[in-house]
Amino acid sequence: MNGTNAVEDRERFPTLTAAGRAMLAFMREHPAAPVYRNHSGNKLLAHEVEEVRQFERDIATAAVGWPADAKPAWLNEFIRTAFASVPYYRQLGSPFRELEEIPVVSRADFATDIAAFVPDSADVARMINFRTTGTTGHPLLIASHPVVAARYLAFHKRALRRFGVELTHGQGQVGVVLLGYQQRCFTYVSVTPAMGESGLAKINLYPDEWRVPEDRAVYLDALAPEVLAGDPISFAELLKLPLTMRPRALLSVSMLLLPALRAQLEQRFSCPVLDIYSLNEVGPVAVYDARVGGHVLLQPQLYVEILDPAGQPVAAGQRGEITLTGGFNFCLPLLRYRTGDFASMAVSGDGEPVLVGLSGRSPVRYCALGGWINNIDVTHALQHLAIPHFRVHQHADGSVVLRLTQAMTPLGEQARAALEHLFGPGAVTLEQLTAEDKTVQYTSDMEGARA
């Protein structure tokens, strides 16, 4: 499955040089390399590589935010363009006078007909797409472009720079390794032209994807990437490997990262561990910074509303659904896109917008000893434990089931005791979480659980 040919490489890597070919061969043909199930490439044309580099320079110095009692200066033109060029909005008629008058959309709308949200100006011949299932249903096909995919790096660089990390790896070095730990996982190798064709690999740490499980550590040490990106599940597996490599940073880009697991990772690898709030529909949105008490926004052309269930803005400082307008994906401009994620909004001392108490899933209330509690209270109860993944379900009779992976069984009793402080003695039972893939973290059968 690791094989490819020169013709395929030219199609996937239009600007590939001899150095880039050597990097691809190194990652594919290393004796400890995994089974690569897929092929992918940057598909960037020469002029697009330069555009991406300029975009990175612009993002590095751009201000992010908007006046306290006003909208961003770019917003009105963005709305006018969307109503003129996007079929879904064009059929609504003339642009609305105020952003708040525009109907909200959700993942379900995209899943029904993603083509209706792609602007007429999109170059269909160059478009790319990928499918995501998410955690709450609505399988989704995302419209994108090679330039859009390459732009992610600009926001990751901005986030890393906040913690004192400037990326330096280039020709002949591996820049980024993306980690997964799933029974099924898209895996491939590529190079990053804007970073001198540094190597990029998406690997699956699931043991069945390797000749022998020991090859995982051998291969990662050989690649010695500057940055590792993954989720709490793959990072928990990473901690088990006898690695000698020292990445300069770890990026957690999906699911909840509990503080105890972050601390273990930082101690083991002696580097910052960044918790990045990122969505397939809009890319990297924000990065957590404990110094400001929340996730700091990363995109200068992204406006955030916090809405109640009726689609109305909540009062300042109140919690609601994160709703996005703007973005850098010119194949999928967003107008009032309800993300299904929840937080309140604040402003840092430097004037930066901050998402506070981010919960990347629909809020679920639980019936506890003192009445209804937020699912974030459950998170707080467990945050002292290095649990990479869990599920909490409340039955209609009020009993609670905590599901943990088999690897986390030794922490089960501590976790149960922590939750019983909320729900009462004997109210919590433990079960094994058997699904290796993404799952909905908080669920309930109780009437009124959906706040």
Low-confidence stretches: none
Query: What's the Cα radius of gyration?
Result: 22 Å
The main β sheet shows up as: 13 strands, mixed
- Summed up, the domain count is 3
Total DSSP helices:
12
The strand count comes to 21
Instruction: Give the helix level as a range of percent.
Output: 25-40%
Structural class: alpha/beta
Strand content: 25-35%
Shape: globular
> How would you state the average pLDDT, rounded?
91
Termini Cα gap: 48 Å
InterPro entries: ANL_N_sf, CapK_Type1_Caps_Biosynth
Protein name: Phenylacetate-CoA ligase
GO molecular function, one term: ligase activity
Keywords: Ligase
What does this protein look like?
- The chain has about 450 residues and is an alpha/beta fold.
- It is globular, with a radius of gyration of 22 Å.
- GO terms for molecular function: ligase activity.
- It comes from Duganella sacchari.
- InterPro entries: ANL_N_sf (IPR042099), CapK_Type1_Caps_Biosynth (IPR053158).
- This is Phenylacetate-CoA ligase.
